[in-house]
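Continuing the batch. This is chain 6 of the set; chains 1 through 5 are on the previous pages. Same settings as before, nothing changed between runs. Recording input and output for traceability.
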Amino acid sequence: MAIQNKSDGRYFLLDANQIVKKISNREISCESLVRSCFERIEARDHVVKAWSQLNKSSAIKESKKLDKVQKRQLLHGLPIGWKDIIDCKGYITTCGSSIYKNNLALINAAPVSMSIRSGAMVLGKTVTTEFATSFPGATTNPHNPLHTPGGSSSGSAAAVADFMVPVAVGTQTGGSVIRPASFCGIVGFKPSFNTISRYGVKQVSDSLDTLGTFSRNVKDTALLLAGLTGRKEYFDISKIKPLKIAICRTENWNLAEKMMIDSIYLASHLFSKNGINIKEINLPDVFKSLDSAHHDIEYYELSRALQHEYLTTPNLLSEAIKMRIVTGQQIKLSQYHLASELTQTCKEVIKEKIFSKFDLLITPSALGVAPKGLTSTGDATFNRIWSSMGVPCITLPGFTGSDNLPLGIQLIGPMRGDVEVLSKALWVEKLLKKSL
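Output for chain 6:
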């Protein structure tokens, strides 16, 4: 995946902030940028297979329109890749299933509309696993096509990592933003629950589904989040040095690969050298059942969300997803309520007993590097409990594991502390780039 110098119109190498600045200053045109992205896609996507749908002529037509607009918005001219469970007008929302091969979207999902309002454009739809669960699509890891890119936001992560698009949007119910971003070596951000509107997005779990972003640096993350929400406060971040960080040893700490744990301790050593107070903590005992509670909530809600497909076209569903639906139907209402109550208790405990003492938690983004093979998207062990609590999580690249594949470390902050998490992640990102 060698990338050469930016020359001869190789604008696909630019990051999002560079793009909007150059377009605003009329140093490059929206059309030339889009054509450059398609050149990269045409050169690489036969290997990476990140895109489920592209409409080159439509995208170029839209870019020409944007070039004629005099008033430049926050995301003016920025092309975005959208996970294929998110409605984009004029594109088919397949949800990674043949059931929806003709499901043409007549309107845009709310976050798509928000991005267009901010001046962005749809570059195309990115591959998702079947209904954003675990049955994989065709996408490969851009660093090694024999390895998974992660999932369920497989195409979004891979397209950004391979320089086909500067930013993309995905969703996370368990670990579908953080894990693929780590596997592909980019920045993945799952904001606080419901920060980005879910209207027009195929539902899996109403209590857990969260839209998130993929980019190649933290500043681009903040820019995209501001455009998707219409809230410029998310973009107005500045580097803030965290004062207290805790290495959070979850119940499944011993499942992480040695290189992942080594990366966590290397990062913590760098933090300590730069005057940050570092401690190791174990979560209170009440968290021991939270992973199981996440399972109960997800499967219970998934079994309701996919009832139409299960009743009308079960033969077009994978065995894996049918198993989840059947399992969810067997979960008793009382069990579901207990899982929801436990989740609420953990939200209160982490706010009062953890984030009252620490600015950030640091923990693995995944078990390790992207597993070899394309039949699995990896394990969400180090993601599910944070998805349950709805807290903001960001994975930062910079480390390398076995087979020269990337590793990411995960930073976690308090609920609704997204601006502070991004600001502190900006400081951490600079430290990692300087020191590694």
